[in-house]
Amino acid sequence: MAATTPTKVEFYFDVVSPYTWFCFEVLCRYRPYWNMDLVLRPFFLGGVMKTTGNKPPMTVASKGFYMQKDLIRNAAYFGIDIKLIEDPYNVLVQKGSLRAMKFLTSINLHCPMYLENVSRELWRRIWSKGEDITEENSLKEAAKTAQMNESDIEKCFKKMDDTETKEALKRTTQEAVDYGAFGAPTVVVHTKEGQEMFFGSDRFPLIAQLMKEVWKGPFPDKNSKL
Amino acid sequence: MASSPRIKVEFFYDVVSPYTWLAFEVLCRYQSHWKMDLVLRPFYLGGLMNATGNRPPMMVPKKGLYMHKDLLRNAAYFGVPLKAIEDPFNVMIEKGTLRAQRFLTVVAHEHPEHLEGVSRELWRRIWSLGEDIVEDESLHLAAKATNMEDADIQKCLNMMNDSTIKLSLKKTTEDAVEYGAFGAPTIVLHLNGRSEMFFGSDRFPLMAEMMNEKWKGPFPDMIKSSL
């Protein structure tokens, strides 16, 4: 009997977002457990916000305070090492992630096998170690740590500012908006009946149900501690 | 050896909020599973929004569209008979829930044993049956469905506009603000002399962990519970 076709799951992400990192790691962990085809789609959250009129949650003061606690609790739950950013407005808004997402787009176009690892290293820089992700050195360091070889790093970095790369990032961002996205992470599950968009890192039980899979908590390979 | 004390869990809620209904039903179901002392605290979400500068999610159109789907999926997952409201702006904002929340405040004071039941009936009216919860008649019907006596219901309706009740609702709302609330549901766990505030109906695994309890999904009573 033929194996069933894996369910295509598109993962729209921007490394500026910590909740997106939680979602990313969980989906990567579930690759051997769920019959899915995980497609990583680097997009630009800043662009999504602009198009949809949404604003980052920290613009409401008490939301900002709550988010700090919520991030730490979720980090422990998901087993990811998060360090709160000291100057979030400067890092997340003024400096932002446009260059990082352009770099990841370039990698996706020219050396896609490194996309997962470089994304992880960029998240680690900004959200674990409090390091820069805008400068040339920062991006190249992340790629190096992800075991990319020198020539591939140079190639992808050079092509970062090509029209092709800019257009690809724009297009991916627009696709997410067309799916109804207003934030990150945006997860789109393609079933026989159609596609379903999910927002956030707290809908896994619903995503599992839709895919007719089992949600075993953040660590599927441990003996099911939820 | 003395057994560990029950953990006080304050549940700040307003029946205008559908996600809050989901959290309410879960906490009610878990009363017999978790060692907790569930304290229902009806507050006024409209007042909370004013105090914190927050706005309802539907103000961003794409969020509103998503929320419609998200609510129905969650309703199915949590087993709560939620139905989309046809004219949400009129029902939730123009009509609103100030009277309903005042009524619940009276019930909390005078007949706390009926607070859970009347809250549920008000949610059912607005979020399952698409019925009014502003008029006295509507509030009466909700209370009647929990087998409250007519005379008691009338007494509660008469007390709704007392300054003590208005102040009580205000104070509960202020208490929530003090805990850092910006929306509903706001759930406050009291552990080891400190308070931990949670927002939303999607943090139960985290709350369970903090309380040293087990999250068994939305139906803890089922033999083979799934997350």
Structure overview:
The complex is a heterodimer of chains A (226) and B (227). The longest helix of chain A has 18 residues. Chain A has a single domain, classed as Glutaredoxin (3-Layer(aba) Sandwich). The model of chain A has no long low-confidence stretch (mean pLDDT 95). In chain A, helix 2 packs across helix 9. Chain A is 51% helix and 12% strand. Chain A has a four-stranded mixed beta sheet with strand order 2-1-3-4, sandwiched between helices. Chain A is α+β, with helices and mostly antiparallel strands and 226 residues long. With 227 residues, chain B is of the alpha+beta class. Chain B has one domain: Glutaredoxin. Helix content of chain B is 51%, strand content 11%. Chain B contains ten helices and four strands. Chain B has a four-stranded mixed beta sheet, with helices on both faces. In chain B, a hairpin with a 2-residue loop joins strand 3 and strand 4. At the A-B interface, helix 3, strand 4 and helix 10 of A face helix 3, strand 4 and helix 10 of B. Chain A: One of its GO terms (biological process) is glutathione metabolic process. Chain A: It catalyses: RX + glutathione = an S-substituted glutathione + a halide anion + H(+). Chain A: Keywords: Transferase. Chain A: Belongs to the GST superfamily. Kappa family. Chain A: It comes from Daphnia galeata. Chain B: Its EC number is 2.5.1.18.
